Amino acid sequence: MRKIAFLAVLLGLMSAQVMAQISAGAIYSGGKLGFSSSSGKSTVKTSSTVVETKQPNTTSFEFAPGGGYILSDKLGVGLNLGFSNSVTKVDSTNYSDKTTYSNLFINPYLRYYMMLDDNFGFTGTFNVRFGTGSSKSETKTVSVTTTVEGPKLSNLSIGITPGIIYFPTSKIGLEANIGFLGFTSNTSKSEGTNITTTSTNSKFGLNVDTFTPAFNVGFFYYLGGE
């Protein structure tokens, strides 16, 4: 019992010394990683057969280093520069098709902090994100592989991302952002010898940004502040 009591007191003292750096004048730097994956299948049954068809499998990855400045104990501004990659693949018995999207982006943002205590809180981030990239498709049959360079891509997203933040120490902040609510616009442009084709797809809603994984985590180091 004495050992348990001693450990409880020690942990209490350690947690009491951890003070989050969400205060005016603090700066932070670090990076984020994002990942998402989706897949599915459809099944058709008759009296004598069962046919299963795989739906496209999409995997998205993102890496975004960056940093920011704390304006007050509630607000901060920041900037991320990053790279994202999205792969959609369809497989069947004698055929497969893979489309790859690569994207470079810049992401300024304004963040609201709602700290519940010195260690844990919620965030709401208003993002503006500009990106540019390219696509490529690869089709495989039993004996032939065909690769086609796709159109040039550009994208814009404006919206809000909710999240949580936790400080295991006074200077290290761990973040997790889940979802996206807002507007996105994706444009593709193909240029041929005598023709240029441009198409734009715009959406508003929840998790509508194709180039942004629905979940990402971040590690940031905080310095300074009042």
Give a description of the structure.
This protein has 226 residues and is mainly beta. The protein has one domain: Beta Barrel (Lipocalin). Helix content is 7%, strand content 68%. It has one helix and twelve strands. The strands form two sheets. The protein has an eight-stranded antiparallel β-barrel. A two-stranded antiparallel ribbon has the order 2-3. Strand 8 and strand 9 form a beta hairpin. The N terminus is likely disordered.
Short summary:
This protein has 226 residues and is mainly β. The chain has one helix spanning 2-17; strands at residues 27-38, 41-45, 50-54, 57-70, 75-91, 96-115, 120-140, 145-166, 172-178, 181-191, 196-206, 215-223. The protein has a single domain (21-223), classed as Lipocalin, CATH 2.40.128.
Kindly state the percentage of residues in helix.
under 10%
**Could you say which structural class the secondary elements and strand pairing correspond to?**
mainly beta
Q: Point out poorly predicted stretches.
A: 1-18
Count of discrete alpha- or pi-helical segments spanning 4 or more residues: 1
Strand content: over 45%
Assign an overall shape. Answer: elongated
**CATH architecture heading:** Beta Barrel
Strands across the major sheet, in which order?
1-4-5-6-7-8-9-12
SSE map:
Elements: H1 2-17, E1 27-38, E2 41-45, E3 50-54, E4 57-70, E5 75-91, E6 96-115, E7 120-140, E8 145-166, E9 172-178, E10 181-191, E11 196-206, E12 215-223
Antiparallel strand pairs: 1-4, 1-12, 2-3, 4-5, 5-6, 6-7, 7-8, 8-9, 8-10, 9-12, 10-11
